[in-house]
Amino acid sequence: MEGMSEREYSTHSGLSRGAIQKARKAGRLVVYGDGSINAAASDLRRGEMTDPDQQRRSTGGDSGFSGPADSSSYLKARTALTVYQAQERQLAIQKKKGTLVDRARAETLVFRLARQERDTWVTWPSRVAALMAAEVATEVEKKSGKPVIIEAAILQRVLETHVRAQLDALADLRVSLG
Prior knowledge:
Blueprint: H1 6-13, H2 17-26, H3 39-49, H4 52-58, H5 71-97, H6 103-144, H7 152-171
Helix pairs in contact: 1-2, 6-7
């Protein structure tokens, strides 16, 4: 026997016996006439014909990735993608159920509601001033026994002043939707 047996070459190269048999069938080994393996020539031929990634994986080196990539960055990216897709599905479900609303639409509705409320309060003094003047005059007459006249226009101006002050204070409130 001129060269090494498959087992000896397996020990020499650090590859499994199955890998040596595959390399022999693929023609990546130099074999003598008696079937033994020429180790030096086979090492050279395997180095030329075998993908470097394949060599590293077969010897247990590296983690199966070539270049700057590593398995943790791939796993992190894959995990991030999965989380993003799950969040996207959750939002779609919430939208369908009606628990999630469009932010711009919600802000428009809140603004419209606030505007309607403000308009109602601005016109309130003119609607109630005359009634309030009459009620106050009646109460004062009952207490004092003397006729009293309260001008609705004066009461309206007083109410408007206080309502505007209250609305100015409320104008500083801001609705935060997120």
